[in-house]
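Researcher: Re-running this chain for the archive, since the previous output was lost when a drive failed. Same request as before.
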Amino acid sequence: MKNPVIYALLSLLVLAGCSGARDRLGLSKATPDEFAVVRRAPLEMPPDYALRPPRPGAPRPQEQTAVDAARAAVLGRTDRSGGASAAESDLIRTTGATNVPSNIRAKVDAEASEDSDGDVSVLKKIAGIGGDPAPEGKAIDPVAEAARLKAQKAAEAKK
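Model: Regenerated structure tokens:
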């Protein structure tokens, strides 16, 4: 070994190129998980302006849970009643869907399980693989077929 400092610097340079070593040495940038970030509700003053001291560890009263926020984003409402809005009620009444049987889900599941094509995947249905076997065809005699086509052409030419 002529110069151990040069070897040490070269080995550090090679190690810095490895992502695992870079993470262990703290040289890589740690970004936050954008899906783990929860939006905080805005601060609000109580209507009577009487400030109550916060309780340590208690959730904020104006803050929604993740489930309530998802419900509000999907259904467009923030109440926990789960009832239909006025527009949804009007739509249900107009379409006549008010007398839906309570066991409708069981009926739909039973009808779906009776489907005979359920065993064949979509790719096999599209490609025609599997399922019912292809019907057997009749082999065509090329000489007889050529004579038939020739006779058909001659008959069309006479017309």
